[in-house]
């Protein structure tokens, strides 16, 4: 249940970054000196960037909306057990959502302290991969939400009251294919952001690689747990990737 702390930090911090970015790209307000210096340290370029300004805006917006939804699910959808996480994992989670927002913003092209925007306005940069990436983001988010609803209902009665915190076998949506579709959807959400970046942003693909291995490990451990706990667990169901792993 302390995962909610991660999303509180993300909503506040990445909303903060999104506000500065929005002011810069739409109103021409320079980024604060401290933020500009921080972005330069992280590798932000002082050069034109094609469609990068719109890509960064859409990805940071997606990250912020994703954090809002996950925070809502933590409070109103998920039913957590008494399981705990290590203090190191907890601290890493807090730091991660600060760094991931800065990672996105560091990809924006700069002209001094201003964001470099080609054309008369930001949306003149719109390309097909922006549309595809946002469609993938919405699609993946919907499925992740559905999977969390399914998990939450396993511990509630028909009136929506929590009656236990035991584990049961979930069915429906992507659970028909993998044991942890919520982790798969998380990966797909980050891939959708890579698509929004235009497929070729190496920095973000490194983020996707981290998400892949972290979510795959969690999914594998969950799969082993389900198999050991339930004799009748579906044999065809994979851990993380449908039909593969």
Automatic annotation (TrEMBL):
Q: How does it sit in the membrane?
A: Multi-pass membrane protein
Q: Where is the 3-oxo-5-alpha-steroid 4-dehydrogenase C-terminal domain?
A: 126-245
The protein's annotated pathway:
Protein modification; protein glycosylation
Localization (cell): Endoplasmic reticulum membrane
Domain of life, per the record? Answer: Eukaryota
Q: Which residues cross the membrane?
A: 6-29, 50-67, 87-105, 126-145, 187-213
User: Biological process GO terms, please?
Assistant: dolichol-linked oligosaccharide biosynthetic process; polyprenol catabolic process
**Care to name a GO molecular-function term for this sequence?**
3-oxo-5-alpha-steroid 4-dehydrogenase (NADP+) activity
State if Lipid metabolism is listed as a keyword. Answer: yes
Q: Name one GO cellular component term.
A: endoplasmic reticulum membrane
Q: Is Lipid metabolism found in the keyword set?
A: yes
The chemistry this enzyme catalyses reads:
a di-trans,poly-cis-dolichal + NADP(+) = a di-trans,poly-cis-polyprenal + NADPH + H(+); 17beta-hydroxy-5alpha-androstan-3-one + NADP(+) = testosterone + NADPH + H(+); androst-4-ene-3,17-dione + NADPH + H(+) = 5alpha-androstan-3,17-dione + NADP(+); a 3-oxo-5alpha-steroid + NADP(+) = a 3-oxo-Delta(4)-steroid + NADPH + H(+)
Q: What does this protein do?
A: Plays a key role in early steps of protein N-linked glycosylation by being involved in the conversion of polyprenol into dolichol. Acts as a polyprenal reductase that mediates the reduction of polyprenal into dolichal in a NADP-dependent mechanism. Dolichols are required for the synthesis of dolichol-linked monosaccharides and the oligosaccharide precursor used for N-glycosylation. Also able to convert testosterone (T) into 5-alpha-dihydrotestosterone (DHT).
Q: What protein does this entry describe? A: Polyprenal reductase
> Which organism does this sequence originate in?
Fukomys damarensis
Q: What is the lineage of its organism?
A: Eukaryota, Metazoa, Chordata, Craniata, Vertebrata
